[in-house]
Amino acid sequence: MSAENSSKKGSLEVICGPMFSGKSEELIRRLRRAQIAKQNVLTCKHSLDNRYMIECIISHDGKKLEAEAIGDVHDIFRLGKDSKIEVIGIDEVQWFDATIVSIISQLIEMGKRLIVAGYELDFRGRPVGQMPVLLSIADKVTKLQAICTLCGKDATLTQRLVNDKPAKFNDPDIVVGGSEQYQARCRNCHHVEYEVEKDRYTFKEFKLKQI
Ligand SMILES: [Zn+2]
């Protein structure tokens, strides 16, 4: 790599949208194109445990790409800073803690092209983790839409159902012993159950603060 090339900065592309909007499919498509262009690609996905292993990114339409399953966010920097790596893809980026922002920023400074995918809103319609920050610092944002399960219009939200009923605002992220299901929904068909009026108020207040 010449001195001129090594001083070039990289970029950040964020692919977001509700569940079933094709985020992983789009991430795989861009990473495959980079591989066809003979670029060195590092593919990572979030892992719920800290063991280091090779897994796959699998899109809902069955496309697969081998990926490093990362539990400790610092491993993305450790693997990505390698001078041979030109493109870094990260799936399920919303699950990483706040350190992901500085790690991505440093890799951009080092000239890497980062392509990350994740959902930006939780089932309540609230911004998730570091996604608002990543969307703000991105060079390119692709906000995908799914199809609403109920009415067939464009869906921008994820509906969570617990035992076939809309999840409650205060439901924990994992309900023990309940059957859970997720659907893509449009704003009109999306429902969140509020246990007490205070939850609704807190949510409205939160939304106002976002503006
Ligand atoms: Zn709908």
Write the layout of secondary structure elements.
Elements: H1 3-6, E1 11-16, H2 23-36, E2 41-46, E3 53-58, E4 64-70, H3 74-80, E5 87-91, H4 99-109, E6 113-117, H5 131-137, E7 140-143, E8 146-147, E9 154-155, E10 157-162, E11 165-166, E12 180-185, H6 197-210
Parallel strand pairs: 1-6, 1-7, 2-4, 2-5, 5-6
Antiparallel strand pairs: 3-4, 8-9, 10-11, 10-12
Helix pairs in contact: 3-4
The protein binds zinc ion (ZN).
What is this entry, summarized?
The chain is α/β, with parallel strands linked by helices. The protein has helices at residues 3-6, 23-36, 74-80, 99-109, 131-137, 197-210; strands at 11-16, 41-46, 53-58, 64-70, 87-91, 113-117, 140-143, 146-147, 154-155, 157-162, 165-166, 180-185. The strands form 3 sheets. The chain has a 7-stranded mixed β-sheet, with helices on both faces.
Task: Give an account of the 3D structure.
This protein is of the alpha/beta class and 211 residues long. It has 2 domains: 3-144, P-loop containing nucleotide triphosphate hydrolases (Rossmann fold, 3-Layer(aba) Sandwich), CATH 3.40.50.300; 154-210, 2-Layer Sandwich (Wheat Germ Agglutinin (Isolectin 2), domain 1), CATH 3.30.60. It has helices spanning 3-6, 23-36, 74-80, 99-109, 131-137, 197-210; strands at residues 11-16, 41-46, 53-58, 64-70, 87-91, 113-117, 140-143, 146-147, 154-155, 157-162, 165-166, 180-185. The strands form 3 sheets. A 7-stranded mixed β-sheet has the order 3-4-2-5-6-1-7, sandwiched between helices. A hairpin with a 5-residue loop joins strand 3 (53-58) and strand 4. Helix 3 (74-80) packs parallel to helix 4 (99-109). It is globular, with a radius of gyration of 18 Å. The mean pLDDT is 88.
